[in-house]
Amino acid sequence: MAGAQPGVHALQLKPISVPENVKKGSKFMKWDDDSTTVTPVTLKVDPQGLFLYWTDQNKETDLLEVSHIKDARTGKYARNPKMQTFER
Prior knowledge:
Residues 17-86 form the PLC-beta PH domain. This protein is mainly beta. The protein has one helix and four strands; from the N terminus they run αββββ.
């Protein structure tokens, strides 16, 4: 491009801001992928916003890297998951 200067169009990302309420923990319902089981958990996010971790009622903790999340829903779109059936 005529007249373009190198480095002028550098992308600048804003730092991630994780709200205090999710750093401290909030109550959620966790659905298992392979069943209709729902588990009440306390969900937290690390201060950098890279990991989700939750603790269930038995004090067992699990961890998930945010880049592995494929779907999240709130409000009227957060319905019970339907069982998938495959016909042959």
